[in-house]
Write a structure and sequence with these properties.
Elements: E1 2-7, H1 10-20, E2 27-32, E3 42-43, H2 51-60, E4 65-68, H3 71-75, H4 78-84, E5 88-89, H5 98-101, H6 103-113, E6 120-123, H7 126-136, E7 140-144, E8 153-156, H8 159-171, E9 182-186, E10 191-200, E11 204-212, E12 215-217, E13 221-224, E14 229-232, H9 239-259, E15 265-275, E16 278-285, H10 292-298, H11 304-313, E17 327-335, E18 347-348, H12 351-355, E19 360-364, E20 367-369, E21 375-377, E22 381-389, H13 392-405, E23 411-412
Parallel strand pairs: 1-2, 1-4, 2-3, 4-5
Antiparallel strand pairs: 6-9, 7-8, 7-9, 10-11, 10-15, 11-14, 12-13, 14-17, 15-16, 17-22, 17-23, 18-21, 19-22, 20-21
Length: 422
């Protein structure tokens, strides 16, 4: 098979790393890729939102399967464009990608399917939204309705904080048109967990679960980010509970999406809150998480590529994926100033030393190659240092040993990733 992965982050590096190990693979491309991905795939300079160029490349190079990483091209209709050209694409159509592209749509689907979730209201007028917050009080959650790169959610501890979030999203448009409408929800309490399933429109195949760390600082302090680290498996989310949530959340969503004439194919990611009343849906995403993807793929024993193809072909019913009996930890290294104003262009050294540590893998998330062969920081979340080991404690020790082997004074990370699982 000839495969094209779309994206340039740590998630896409991990996907390329896993796909490159398949005996079914003939040739692997990544658009646009990054210097780390270039070690396992041929990078092509096409942006993730340039659907026409991606389709043309896939046709010219006889690509058998396209694997989109990020959500933006899916919400923009990349799968529709590929399928119109007769090319298999392991991701939802534009209509089905609304599960992530619109918080309102996802909530409507959850309510129609009987999926347990937080009580909610949608607002297109900022004054009405502020009045609602004053009536309901805090804590309360304010979400931009559209895509906001994982940053469009404010869990407000006070009314003033919620009202400020409404002003930023709806009046100042810090997330552009994604904040033209907001969804305001009750604040669920408990422990968060991410559940991943590969779907073929009818059937769902468990990929695993992980716990992400969203806030930028140790102890879950500071603003939300795209994800500062993750670990898997999650001790308080055992296999029996994974299976129960597949039945209570993932499968009802698939049934409702099929009923609406927009069957969901690809990776469905349910962000869950484990409350005193059981697991409740926080949000749906229509792709692998980042950095959850990295820890899940490190722990996967089976070949990923035929599973992705089976999802496109509607053949997951009799498919099986095996996972290692091990633990994996991912630590995000970010550029100084992230998430507000990350500094770019600093030199990163010691990557080979980190990767030489037993069980450690280094995934590039936002890097460029310098003219002298050095690796340069090129964004906010720059590297994901991952490790696998027989247990969570040793995986965590290995991951931070990898972090400490890297020489990058302008970078930082959280030092408590995975600590809650010990």
């Amino acid at each position: 098979m000839k495969v094209l992965v779309v994206g340039s982050g740590g998630r896409e590096h991990a996907l390329c790393w896993a796909i490159a190990a398949s005996p079914l693979l003939t040739e692997l491309f990544c658009a646009p890729g990054n210097p780390g991905i270039a070690s396992v795939a041929r990078c092509v300079a096409i942006g993730v939102l340039d659907s026409a160029a991606l389709v043309a490349f896939a046709q010219t190079n006889a690509i058998d399967l396209v694997v989109p990483g990020p959500e933006a091209p899916l919400v923009a209709g990349l799968t529709d464009a590929m399928e119109a050209a007769g090319i298999a694409c392991c991701g939802p159509t534009k209509a089905a990608a609304q599960l992530e592209g619109s918080k309102t749509f996802a909530k409507d689907v959850a309510d129609a399917a009987g999926i347990p979730t937080a009580l909610w209201e949608r607002f297109e007028d900022s004054e009405a939204a502020r009045a609602f917050v004053r009536r309901r009080g805090a804590p309360i959650v304010v979400k931009a309705d559209g895509l906001a790169a994982g940053k469009g959610v404010v869990v407000a501890a006070t009314e003033d904080e919620a009202i400020a979030a409404i002003g930023a999203m709806m009046d100042s448009r810090v997330f552009g048109e994604s904040g033209a409408a907001v969804v305001i929800e009750e604040c669920l309490t408990g422990r968060e967990v991410s559940l991943f399933a590969l779907c073929d429109g009818t059937d769902a195949l468990l990929l695993g679960s992980a716990r992400d760390h969203k806030r930028v600082g140790d102890g879950d302090t500071g603003p939300n980010t795209g994800g500062m680290g993750a670990y898997s498996p999650v001790p308080d989310f055992p296999p029996a509970l994974e299976d129960a949530c597949l039945d209570a959340i993932i499968r009802p969503a698939l049934k409702e999406m099929a009923h609406r004439g927009m069957p969901f194919r690809g990776v469905l990611f349910a962000g869950l809150m484990l409350t005193g009343e059981g697991a409740k849906l926080i949000e749906f995403n229509v792709r692998f998480g980042d950095p959850e993807c990295q820890v899940l793929l490190l722990g996967m024993k089976s070949d990923l590529l035929p599973a992705l193809q089976a999802a496109c072909d509607g053949e997951l019913r009799d498919f099986d994926l095996r996972r290692n009996e091990s633990a994996a930890v991912a630590v995000t290294m970010a550029a100084r100033g992230y998430p507000e104003a990350p500094e770019r262009g600093s030199v990163i050294r010691g990557l080979a030393d980190a990767a030489a540590i037993e069980g450690v893998s280094v995934f590039h998330a936002a890097t460029n190659a310098g003219s002298d062969g050095t690796v340069l920081a090129a964004g906010g979340r720059v590297l994901t240092i991952c490790a696998i080991a027989p247990d969570l404690g040793r995986a965590r020790d290995r991951a931070y040993a990898g972090v400490d082997a890297i020489v990058w004074p302008e970078g930082f990370c959280r030092r408590d990733i995975g600590a809650g699982g010990l």
